[in-house]
Amino acid sequence: MNEIQFNHIIKRDGSIVPFTSIRITNAIYRAAIAAGERDRAMAEALTKRVLQLMKSEIKSDTPSVEEAQDIIEKVLIEAGQVKISKAFILYRDERARKR
């Protein structure tokens, strides 16, 4: 596995901010709540998988928010979390429209 440790992430506006995996967990958990689920432990487990895929698929040491979100969608779908993935995609689309 690629041993890149992410310290920063590139936001959509191009700014570089500290990377924290809790933001991934929170995004997954919020999508789960929107889909009628409240399993924080599941969100944390899915976050671990997201981080594994980010380390193996992203070649840069500073990923973009878009790259991270693409991998979150992929992990949710692969985990069979269809309702949560739909809620995440809808949230992502809604945020894109607001920008």
Domain count, please report it.
1
**Using only CA atoms, what is the Rg?**
13 Å
Total count of strands: 2
Strand order within the widest beta sheet: 1-2
Count of discrete alpha- or pi-helical segments spanning 4 or more residues: 4
Give the key terms.
two-stranded antiparallel ribbon, 2 strands, globular
What is the gist of this entry?
With 99 residues, the protein is mainly alpha-helical.
Characterise this structure.
With 99 residues, this protein is mainly alpha-helical. The chain has one domain.
Q: Helix and strand layout, with pairings?
A:
Layout: E1 8-10, E2 16-18, H1 21-34, H2 40-57, H3 65-78, H4 82-98
Antiparallel strand pairs: 1-2
